[in-house]
Amino acid sequence: MREIVVFSLLNGAVYGLLLFMLSSGLTLIFSMMGVLNFAHASVFMLGAYLSWQISRWIGFWPALVVAPLLCGLVGAAIERYGLARVHRLGHVAEILFTFGLAYVIGELVIMAWGRNPIENRVPASIDFAAFRIYGTSYPFYKVLMTMISVGMFAFLWLAFKRTRVGLVIQAALTHPRMVSALGHDVPRLFVLVFAIGSALAGLAGVIGGFALLTEPNMAAALGPIVFVVIVVGGLGSIPGAFIASMLIGVVQTFAVAVDYSLADLLRALGMGLPPGSALREMLAIKLSQAAPLIPYLLLVLMLIVRPRGLMGTRDT
Amino acid sequence: MTKGATRPAWWVGAAALLAVLPWVPGLQSDFGRSLLSQMGIAAVFALSYNLLLGQTGLLSFGHAVYFGLGGYAAIHLLRAVNGGWPIPVPLVPLAGAAAGLGFGIVFGALTTRRGGTIFALITLGVGELVRAASLMLPSFFGGEEGVTASRTEAPRWLGLDFGSQLQVYYLIAAWLFVAAILIHAFMRTPVGRLCNAVRDNPERVEFVGYDPRRVRFIAFSVAAAFAGLAGGLHAINYEIVTGEAVGATRSGAVLLMVYIGGVHHFVGAVLGAAAITWLQVSLSDYTSAWLLYLGLIFMGMVAFVPGGLAGLAMIHLSALRTRAVAAIARSYLLALPFALATLAGAATLIEIAYRRSTQPEAGALMTLFWIPMDTAKPWPWIGAAGVLALGAAALARIRPRVAAAWERAAEEIHAHA
Q: Selecting from 2.40.50, 1.20.1250, 1.10.3470, 1.10.10, what CATH number does the domain A2-305 have?
């Protein structure tokens, strides 16, 4: 039992950090421009594919740097040559533009790497046991994933709090007109923020690519969960996104490990099952089967209890 | 909404068109009539979606939930009819509408508390929730195989047995006509007008004394009912409903239809539904890259033609009455060959790349635009890229001419107005 708890916590934290890497980039872009970037998960997928391709050419470690940088460039191009043009048409047009872009990136990935999953294995240089607990070895690459995500956040936090550009971006998040009036080039800051957010998504793709399955559907599979994270955390709040990421990461990982259903719970409490086959079927669903449902249930629950999200401050 | 749509003559014309369409040469076959049936179902669904996006300003990413649940309700009713319930088949879609309305009220109470971006996100979440649930509750959703029923094993009604595609088409067309009139009428009620007001300025609506949340809720429930109706028609047409009926792909497709058709005009949704359905059916026969083309078309529409096909048609209709029409036509004629060359160049590049990555077993030889080519050699790539570059460069040169002609037309229209 304790074994399951420890492993679920460890794996849940790794998954949660991955979610946070995606949701923090999305939140940054959202709070700056009010744009919900539907192509964000597609950039994540692009990161996974690019890192696989680049590590075949020049090895894993260079790919770890190059792939996120390329994703950052892609993000900058999306903002500079796409969204900036659509900006005058309003938020709905911007969302729709990124929605179309998600289709296009997905198809371009198929065009470049085919429809089937690629064999994106953990590179040999990081595929060894880091430590052993309860007689099971814990892989080093998961430790590395944690180290990279935590290191990245420390770096970003310092960059935002301690550098001049970081302070200007922070100011532009809340008062873009004032910042512009003070002589800063706000559209260029937009491009920079988009690039940073996309690079974060790309980095998540590099380290998430071999943890998850690298296939053309991975953006569609992870995208909605990332959106749930930013709603549950409160739109525009990075601490909220962190808490929600960890929450969903840990809860979902735990759920996968629990092989009991509501019917089992009722039986354990000594209660009989209610009549009706549909209701019985619903009660008999094991928690491990229902795991994919949990983020969305959490979303609905949050909307009933606290519509603005965990740390949300403003209404959108 | 166009002024002309209120005239009875317009509706009579629409009814006549719906009646004549399956007899038009080229559409007379079972395939053509089946295509028309699909377009009709898509049109009902798109009209219901435009009630949200175009009229109330609500961007939903989960409208297929109500389509699919309506479809399931209808297919279960159809099974009961197969089992002996004395309900005529033409009324079965009403079960879909009722289910759509019911679920619309339940989920709408949750999702319409806010508009804008957060509404869009929540509808996405609810869509994923229902899709995930559809895989877990096989007794209602039928698991992977879906639920099937027969539309012919039912009491006959006015001698109709719905064995032929033609009868099914007329059933769908009749419901499309009824749905269009009802939705159009709804937009003219005070609530419908308030929907427009909530879209344009929710704060002001609140200031005047109405609750935008309630207006959104009503619009959402009504739209869900019509989506359910479309789902019911889908159930009768295909005699099967599977989990993908509630899925994100269908939700995305209806958004594309309505936006490409034009959100500011009532007929836009119908135009978009017909165009996208036709693209889905015909383009997917020719190329596996059709989703890429669809995505590119959609992005281009969002960036350059926010009025959609209907808006484009309206602009051209008003330009027809100006003296600049000849200049516009001349500039179009000049641009046409280069536009075709650009498209052909781009399409060739995309097709070659697709073939090489997704169907390597099909070999390197392929024929595109009546030209046989060996994709293992560099010249098809170079040739296509060259045609693309030349075409694009020429178009860039011609663009000022087109713009100048339109400027003259715009001046004339303004002078008249």
A: 1.10.3470
Could you report the predicted ipTM of this complex, rounded to two decimals? 0.86
Residues from chain B contacting residue A99 (CB–CB below 8 Å): 252, 255, 298
Residues in chain B with CB shorter than 8 Å from the CB of A235 are 117-118
pLDDT at B387 over 80: yes
Q: How confident is the model at residue B127 (pLDDT cuts 50, 70, 90)?
A: very high
Instruction: Using the Cα atoms of residue B236, residue B242, residue B247 and residue B249 in order, give the sign of their dihedral.
Output: negative
Which comes out higher in pLDDT, residue B87 or B94?
B94
CATH of the domain at B236: 1.10.3470
**Radius of gyration over alpha carbons of chain A, in Å?**
21
| Chain A hits for B294, Cβ within 8 Å | 103
Q: Please report, rounded to a whole number, the percentage of residues in chain A having pLDDT higher than 70.
A: 96
Same domain, B283 and B336: no
Indicate the burial class of B137 (C-beta count within 10 angstroms; 0-12, 13-18, 19 or more): middle
**Is residue B231 within 8 Å of residue B71, measured between CB atoms?**
yes
Q: Is B346 found in the same domain as B264? A: no
Cβ pair B221, B101 in contact under 8 A: yes
**Taking CB atoms and an 8 Å limit, are A293 and B303 in contact across chains?**
no
- Quick: pLDDT tens for A101-131: 999 999 899 888 888 888 777 777 777 777 7
Look at A303 and B110 and tell me if their CB atoms are within 8 Å: yes
Domain around B117: 3-296
Work out the average pLDDT over B39-44: 95
CB contact under 8 A, B292 and A111: yes
Q: How far is A26 from chain B (nearest CA, A)?
A: 13
> Is the distance from CB of B181 to CB of B11 less than 8 angstroms?
yes
Is residue B308 in some structural domain? no
Residues in chain A within 8 Å Cβ distance of B216: none
Q: Which pTM does this prediction carry?
A: 0.88
First to last CA, chain A: 43
**Closest to B139 (Cβ–Cβ): which among A220, A281, A292?**
A281
Q: From the CA of A212, how many Å to the nearest CA of chain B? A: 19
The per-residue pLDDT for range B298-350, each reduced to its tens digit, is 998 898 888 889 988 888 888 887 777 888 888 888 888 888 888 888 888 88
**Sole residue written with tokens 């000022």:** B400
Mutation pick from B59, B63, B299 vs chain A, by most beta carbons of A within 10 Å, is B299
Q: Does residue B275 sit within a domain?
A: yes
CA angle B207, B215, A34 (to 5 degrees): 75
User: B226 and B113 in one domain?
Assistant: yes
**Gap between the Cα atoms of B267 and A130, Å rounded:** 63
Least CB-CB distance to B358: which of A114, A220, A292? Answer: A114
Picking from B141, B301, B302, B375 by the largest number of A CB atoms within 10 A of its own CB, the best residue to mutate is B302
Q: Which residue of A has its CA nearest to B304?
A: A86
Contact B114 A315 (CB under 8 A): yes
